[in-house]
Design brief:
alpha/beta; 4 domains; 18 helices; 31% helix
């Protein structure tokens, strides 16, 4: 077989270590020798950046090395479409992915790297009763199959994490670390992540986020008032808040958008001096950062001399202050005797308000509101969520992180009841936006025969929200300014075993058994493989997004040939899975040097392979 110019299709998700090594090679090519890193040369290249002290500040836990190895292990799994569980599969750009989120994130890495604008996650809080992933499993897909009752439950992934296990915090950190690492890779350079957590792990979460994102990219710790009624049976204090940690992929590039102004905020502006510029509000004219140039006496209209408060100075130099007085932008009080304040006009702040770090329940809702929302939407469904998040809370984050017209991708890989999906759909409906969501949820059992898993409940919630929005759209009577119909659909994909056979270790000293397994791999596809599943596995592992379209070429009759197209990346390839390629097909294929064509190895002989390699980029299965 002629192999020159012929590649093999990817069978796993990308090798993260290999990719990072290539990046290092681009930056420091001289530190590589025979393909290996010469750490002495690398240390010399980094100079004073290298810390050679025996004791240094670092963050670690039992199992961190295994968590890193788990992150680095490529995924052999695949994602298969479930069109019967989807809505508007052919046209929608929203996604619902069902499976272990670590495996799913690995599979998304190649096609969605640096494309997601905002991530929100509400991971297990590690209270001792939460279900978390242990830090010692080596095959998340196998575990996922057991959790979804596709295998026996003896090795169930979802296990309680009592403090008596001895690794109370470590197991939780080992679960979070690889997922957060991959999440960062998916974010755009101007992207941001919001992570909900309570007091139990907020300190550890902050540390692991510092390690993954860099502490220089920490934005803030939002405090959300999650409930109103006090717990009178609390032994110490009644817990009424949660934290939402905010990190940017690159803090220098990300800025939160202003929030819409409220009537309450506007009511603080008045016009007590009948200024023709309209309502205004006085603000402190002094600042903390002291400068002698900005420390000068001011004479009020009443004749009183005032100075800035102790250890403070005025916010503007004296010349500018006099210009502000001349422009009637300084207020000395109704009698002209007050300490001066700066007039800020409502007409000049209509762009919005800067968000505060304290989010009261009156503004963004609480757990009780979220439960009522779920009950209203999922009438007739037993609710299994103790602390769902309100839609208003999700909308607040979306308003800060996205705009209506940028087609922002929004990801939640601990999707739960899918509050974020509802918020995306409703906010798009309110501002004619085009945001898109990706929800990822493990199919955790619910013991509800109608909706057996949490993933089923999430999908049902989205469907009912979409139905409600369609009804509301009918009542708008053409008042919308939307250029295209709102995307009220989603594609469902499920994590599944690969369509490629997996090599099993074999003792080469047993020639008969070794030869038998080699013979099995003459065709790498598993028994009874499904063409649609194979097409999607090739697409995903070649870096094509899940809104890819797959269409059969009608012009070719002798073989079945599909065109796989990714509209976001404007790329496509042709693929044939038949056992044999007919000569007439080869001449009819629309090939070019840049065109990728994929076929099975068994369909090629030397002549066909040589001809195709000259015509196009050829990859074989």
């Amino acid at each position: 077989m002629i192999e020159e110019g012929i590649e093999t299709v990817e069978r796993t998700s990308p090798d993260l270590v290999a990719e990072q090594t290539e990046q290092l090679k681009c930056m420091f090519p001289h530190v590589f020798s025979e393909g290996k890193v010469d750490f002495k040369k690398l240390r010399a290249a980094l100079g004073d950046i290298v810390d050679t002290q025996p004791e240094r500040y670092n963050f670690t836990w039992a199992g961190k090395r295994n968590a890193t190895l788990l992150l680095q292990a490529p995924s052999y799994a695949t994602l298969t479409p479930a069109e019967d569980e989807s809505a508007n599969f052919d046209t929608t750009q929203n996604l619902f992915l069902e499976g272990d989120n670590l495996e799913v994130l690995k599979l998304l890495y190649k096609s969605y790297s640096s494309r997601v604008k905002m991530i929100y996650i509400d991971p297990p809080y590690n209270t001792g009763n939460d279900f978390i992933y242990p830090d010692d499993f080596t095959d998340p897909l196998d575990t996922y199959l057991r959790v979804t009752r596709q295998k026996d439950a003896n090795g169930n992934l979802l296990t309680s994490n009592p403090e008596t296990s001895g690794r109370y915090h470590s197991a939780w950190l080992s679960m979070m670390y690889p997922r957060l690492f991959l999440a960062r890779q998916l974010l755009r350079e101007d992207g941001v992540i919001f992570v909900s957590i309570d007091d139990t792990e907020v300190h550890n979460l902050r540390m692991v986020l510092n390690e993954v994102f860099g502490e220089e990219n920490f934005v803030t710790n939002l405090v959300w008032e999650k409930k109103y009624s006090p717990q009178n049976d609390a032994r110490w204090f009644s817990d009424t808040h949660d934290h939402i940690l905010v990190y940017a992929r690159n803090k220098e590039l990300w800025r939160p958008h202003l929030l819409p102004r409220t009537e309450e905020a506007n009511a603080r502006y008045q016009n007590i001096d009948d200024d023709p510029r309209g309502p205004w509000k006085g603000s402190d004219l002094s600042v903390k950062s002291y400068s002698a140039k900005y420390d000068y006496p001011i004479q009020t209209p009443s004749g009183r001399i005032v100075h800035p408060p102790e250890s403070r100075c005025w916010a503007v130099p004296e010349e500018q202050f006099h210009r502000l007085v001349a422009d009637n932008r300084i207020w000395f009080g109704p009698t002209g005797n007050n300490t001066p304040s700066l007039k800020r006009f409502l007409s000049e702040v209509q762009g919005g308000m800067v968000a505060k770090t304290l989010w009261p329940r009156e503004e963004v809702g609480d757990n009780q509101e979220a439960k009522q929302e779920l009950k209203a939407i999922l009438s007739g469904v037993d609710i299994v969520f103790d602390t769902p998040k309100p839609v208003r809370l999700m909308k607040r984050m979306l308003q800060l992180a996205t705009t209506r017209d940028e087609g922002a991708l929004v990801l939640d890989f601990f999707a739960g009841s899918c509050s974020l999906a509802q918020a995306v759909a409703e906010l798009n409906s309110e501002d004619d936006g085009n945001r898109r969501f990706i929800m990822v949820q493990l199919p955790e059992p619910t013991n509800n025969p109608q909706y057996p898993t949490i993933a089923d409940i999430g999908k049902e919630r989205i469907l009912r929200v979409f139905a409600k929005l369609r009804d509301e759209e009918k009542g708008k009577l053409g008042l919308t300014t939307r250029k295209e119909p709102e995307d009220l659909g989603f594609r469902v994909f499920k994590l599944a075993s690969s369509n490629y056979k997996q090599w099993k270790g074999m003792d080469a000293s047993d020639p008969e058994a070794y030869a038998k397994q080699l013979d099995m791999f003459a065709d790498p596809l598993v028994e009874n493989w499904n063409p649609v599943s194979v097409l999607w596995e090739v697409a995903v592992k070649e870096g094509y997004g899940l809104n890819t379209s797959i269409n059969q070429l009608e012009s070719i009759k002798e073989n079945t040939v599909w065109q796989v197209s990714d509209p976001d990346r404007e790329q496509s390839f042709l693929i044939c899975l038949d056992d044999q390629l007919q000569p007439v097909t080869l001449s009819a294929l629309p090939l070019s040097k840049e065109q990728l064509f994929v076929c099975r190895n068994k369909a090629l002989d030397d002549t066909k392979a040589a001809n195709l390699a000259l015509q196009c980029r050829l990859k074989k299965i």
